[in-house]
Amino acid sequence: MPVPDRALSAVAVAGSLVVAALLTAVPPGNNDLWLQITIGEMIRESGEIPPTVLFPFTEVKEFPFHPHEWLASVVFSFLHDALGYERLGLVTGAFGLASFALAWRLGWRHTGNHAVSLFLALLTLAVINFRYHLRPEIFALLFALVELNLIAEYRLTGRRRWLVALLPLALLWANCHGSFPVGLVVAGIFALGEAIGARRVAAGLPYAAALAGMSAISLVNPLGYKLFYFAWDLRRWEVMRAYITEWTGTFSPVFMEERGFPAYLYLLAFCAAALVAYRRRAGATEVLLLLAFAALSVDRHRYIVFFAVVALYVLARLVGPVPHAGRRLPALLVALCVVGAAALASFGNFYRAYPYETPSWNFTPPLIDYVEANRLEGNVLNSYELGAELIHRFYPRLRPSIDSRLDSYGEMYFLHSLRLMHSEAEMLKFIGEYDVRYMLLLWRDFESVRPMKGLAANGWTVRFADHKMVLLGRATR
């Protein structure tokens, strides 16, 4: 007996939701989250944003703190208090399902076909998944989808209230994540593209007005106009590109080995094919959006996520209304969901996370117990990935040398922290100058300092080690 169309469509929706949940409803594993929770707690308790880096034991503690993610930190702190760290995976899943729903809605408004809209939404969620962690960027991705939905509604209805809604969105974005200029670029492209497409400047004026309003209201943030300079300057840091994985080039060997790379290539090819197949429907706005964000995505792989969101809108516009095609498309989508769910359950998502486990540099319970049982106190020279949790769990008893806020620490300090791991003379000088009592190092850094004979001569020994990191201590006189 053939399955009724409605039942098959319901199965397709259910299967899509399962895939979306497997992609995103995973425990947090991003080390930045520990610091954001801590800073969020401080803001909630004091009503003030810390003006300086504050936590390290070196002079860098007086460096200005760049609070471009302060509001997201407050939200994360509140969620941590309400749910506990172990349940924050549910929050990531909720963000994922909300993003999926917004992506589906954007596709539906242009294609009018459930199966096609579900496929485009899943494609978007899959491509952005390699960066879909519980971090402030997750707000930015949601805001980008909301912006495109609002603009789409204006284009379809002509009601300017949809563009007015972009103003509070821009305000939230500018206070949650430094990627807020992406929203301004999208609005600017619509202003230019619509004017070119209609061959009338007036056609782009509503979007230009929205852009002006969004730009003005984005100034309402703790840094004011300086936030614009900060966002631009950070992108030009060559140190970030060379040493920080998320800032490396898209076609660098580091990213090409990741699961997100083939998904990105597939989306590029899919967009190129759609642009050729539906070239008569491609307006100036669609072409400009695709070219601008494709070029951005080629530069650094962190921008792929915004390309994927923009590509969703462009693909939906290119495909246009899709007539009901019986059971074929829903049946294909169901098959895709079955295969996708099985793969996710067996091999994890695009950063190898499962609903019950996520790869991370989080401290293991034995390490936490060791620090507490021995009541360790003092200055800690640490790998930069470990500073955030060290602060969250043990500050001010233990003070780190660095954490992951490299935008506040600066290029020179970060490079100096790397040199310490390879120069025995600089290492011994640093330890003596700042009375360093402990080192907490990833195995990567421990292997670099292990040959330093001066450490053993000065009483340094391994106090604790597990599969993630090594804790060294200096003998006290």
Description:
A hairpin with a 3-residue loop joins β4 (about 460-465) and β5 (about 470-475). The protein has helices spanning about 5-25, 30-45, 70-85, 90-110, 115-130, 135-155, 160-165, 165-175, 180-200, 200-215, 225-235, 240-245, 255, 260-275, 285-300, 305-320, 330-345, 365-375, 385-395, 405-410, 410-420, 425-435, 445-450, 455, and strands spanning about 380, 400, 435-440, 460-465, 470-475. The protein starts with a helix and ends with a strand. The protein is mainly alpha-helical. A 5-stranded mixed beta sheet has the order 2-1-3-5-4. The chain folds into 2 domains: about 5-345, no CATH class; about 365-475, no CATH class. The protein is globular, with a radius of gyration of 25 Å. The mean pLDDT is about 95. Helix content is about 65%, strand content about 5%.
